[in-house]
Amino acid sequence: MRTITSDQCNHQDDPDAARPSLRGTPGPPGTLTAVPQADQSYPGPPRPTHVRPVPLTELARQLGAEAPGGDAAATGITHDSRAVRPGDIYAALPGARFHGADFATQAASLGAVAVLTDPAGTERAAATGLPVLTVPDPRGRMGALAATVYGEPGKDLLQIGITGTSGKTTTAYLIDGGLRKAEEKDGGLTGLIGTVESRIGDERVKSERTTPEATELQALFAVMRERGVTSVAMEVSSHALVLGRVDGCVFDIAVFNNLSPEHLDFHPDMEDYFRAKRQLFTTARSRAGVVNFDDEYGYRLISESEVPVTTFSAEGHPDADWRAEDVELGPLGSVFTAVGPKGESVRAAAPLPGPFNVANALAAIVALVSAGIDPQTAADGVAAVPGVPGRLERVDAGQDYLAVVDYAHKPDAVESVLYAIRKVTEGSVHAVLGCGGDRDPHKRTAMGSALARLSDTAVLTSDNPRSEDPLAILATMLAGAAEVPAYERGTVLVEEDRAAAIAAAVARAEPGDTVLVLGKGHEQGQDIAGVVRPFDDKRVLRDAIEHKRLGDGPHSTPDHRTDA
Ligand SMILES: CC(=O)N[C@H]1[C@@H](OP(=O)(O)OP(=O)(O)OC[C@H]2O[C@@H](n3ccc(=O)[nH]c3=O)[C@H](O)[C@@H]2O)O[C@H](CO)[C@@H](O)[C@@H]1O[C@H](C)C(=O)N[C@@H](C)C(=O)N[C@H](CCC(=O)O)C(=O)O
Ligand SMILES: Nc1ncnc2c1ncn2[C@@H]1O[C@H](COP(=O)(O)OP(=O)(O)OP(=O)(O)O)[C@@H](O)[C@H]1O
């Protein structure tokens, strides 16, 4: 293993030059070790190129676990045996499907130096001959341990965490816009972590989850620090809060957008879902909060937050700290005045349409101001965001009607998007929607109802059926559509094949109408019976529009649709 000293490592030469603006506290000087960048079939997240090895005895002390003999040290940590690199601790966690200890042999063969596990995994881990660190709840200890292994990278980053049922991704991109604007004069880079992707400056990294597991997150923070990132906006899902994925982080600002029924396959009820989100507003997790005054659960959070909160109201409520006033909604976005508690008043713009994006933009501005950025810079940065992948994203192929792809895949989001489109367009709306299999089945009826009630043509179709029968999912959605009184209901079509469903909506579009393809947004594949086939709503929509223009029959008139 090649060892270099800190003065050979770029960002240690002149830490102030590398991370100057929003934070910029350099790590302590010391010896850095180049980390082997092994070839892996499972790529895992990016890793820092240099770390300071941490002796296992020190890590055992942190865990309160029995110290292993010898002088081995760790240079990384992962919870996935396939992603182990030489020098890693392998965290063998109990899960719903497996016990990670079953993969300890693979971890050892890839160069793990120790295994962190629970008493149930100790014997299998010890059989590899590696030192074993046993604790009752390894998942609960893994985040803080990962932060230690990677040298507490989060402490060198301004961290803004966003939670809520809808708008996390959008708000994260809008905050990133403001952070970029603030960094313009200093030359610092920004980071973004969320559902669509992670970004290290302009480099894009594929996301496996909305919020990475703690070992991946701390490694990502370390890479960001190494490359000169000074501030990061990240989505924090309720799964992440319950599963300890953000253990080891203290967010400078925590943002709460809203809460509506979702993930009720994971949370037993809304109270449990709310409490999971509320964890982000404890002193262990954040320093200050930004909370949506207009949301029922946001309003409740104001009194239940442990950290001081600043409130915002896109509806202009006079009791909120920040308000959106003089809102003008437009088909491409909205403009409004953000009015603050100290007499601040800046003209701002939401670069995406719909009232809910005024809320997302105001949330972003208030989070940025709470992080110390001046309101005009914050508003300018938010307004400059060119769009968010798969969120109200337009497809233009020269047609005389609007065609939009959107990620709405829960009842509240479907309603918000349809209301938003209705507010800014006059023609008919032809909307396509499916529900994913193996996920919260409770929302399917409500999704069917919302689409039937708010569209002129509702085309019910497949999303990612996964292991479920798509027709069974569609039957539940159709039952929801049938609950809508006939006088309120648009034409409902059922078309199992998603491409044909999109073509059916396009076939009905007249000049001035809107075709709205919902549910998959940025996604590039469709999971049918565990096989993910390439499927890109934007490309399929564009093809359907072009086929219609060329009068190419089969694509514009699917022959196996069902009128409800
Ligand atoms: C409910 C949930 O979130 N489960 C997560 C959890 O699974 P689990 O504990 O049951 O793990 P398991 O599959 O039994 O495996 C046990 C252990 O063996 C390890 N293993 C497994 C196989 C192997 O070859 N080698 C290996 O080391 C696994 O890494 C794991 O640590 O730990 C796994 C390892 O990190 C995660 O992949 C898995 O996320 C699942 C796949 C998932 O999709 N979660 C979704 C629902 C999720 O987290 N969504 C949220 C919210 C999104 C939103 O708001 O829309 C998100 O943040 O993405
Ligand atoms: N503030 C909001 N209120 C209601 N609906 C919203 C809001 N923001 C976005 N949406 C809708 O929800 C969809 C998903 O938005 P976004 O990806 O920003 O949220 P998210 O919280 O990251 O969602 P997910 O958890 O599903 O990834 C958007 O495409 C839009 O239809």
TrEMBL record:
Changes after translation: Carboxylation is probably crucial for Mg(2+) binding and, consequently, for the gamma-phosphate positioning of ATP.
Gene: murE
Originating organism: Streptomyces daliensis
Annotated region (Disordered), positions in chain: 1-52
Presence of keyword Nuclease: no
Domain Mur ligase C-terminal: 390-521
The keyword Protein biosynthesis appears for this protein: no
Record GO biological process: cell division; cell wall organization; peptidoglycan biosynthetic process; regulation of cell shape
Protein name as annotated: UDP-N-acetylmuramoyl-L-alanyl-D-glutamate--2,6-diaminopimelate ligase
Chief localisation class: cytoplasm
Database matches in HAMAP family: MurE
Coiled-coil stretches noted in the UniProt entry, renumbered to this chain: none
Catalytic activity: UDP-N-acetyl-alpha-D-muramoyl-L-alanyl-D-glutamate + meso-2,6-diaminopimelate + ATP = UDP-N-acetyl-alpha-D-muramoyl-L-alanyl-gamma-D-glutamyl-meso-2,6-diaminopimelate + ADP + phosphate + H(+)
Motif extent (Meso-diaminopimelate recognition motif): 463-466
GO molecular function: ATP binding; magnesium ion binding; UDP-N-acetylmuramoylalanyl-D-glutamate-2,6-diaminopimelate ligase activity
Chain sites annotated for binding meso-2,6-diaminopimelate: R439, D463, N464, P465, R466, G519, E523
Cofactor list: Mg(2+)
Keyword terms, alphabetized: ATP-binding, Cell cycle, Cell division, Cell shape, Cell wall biogenesis/degradation, Cytoplasm, Ligase, Magnesium, Nucleotide-binding, Peptidoglycan synthesis
SUPFAM superfamilies referenced in this protein's UniProt entry, alphabetically: MurD-like peptide ligases, catalytic domain (SSF53623), MurD-like peptide ligases, peptide-binding domain (SSF53244), MurE/MurF N-terminal domain (SSF63418)
EC id: 6.3.2.13
Pfam family, one: Mur_ligase_C
List of residues binding UDP-N-acetyl-alpha-D-muramoyl-L-alanyl-D-glutamate: S81, T210, T211, S237, R245
Pathway: Cell wall biogenesis; peptidoglycan biosynthesis
Top-level taxonomy: Bacteria, Bacillati, Actinomycetota, Actinomycetes, Kitasatosporales
Residues that, per the record, bind ATP: G164, T165, S166, G167, K168, T169, T170
GO cellular component labels: cytoplasm
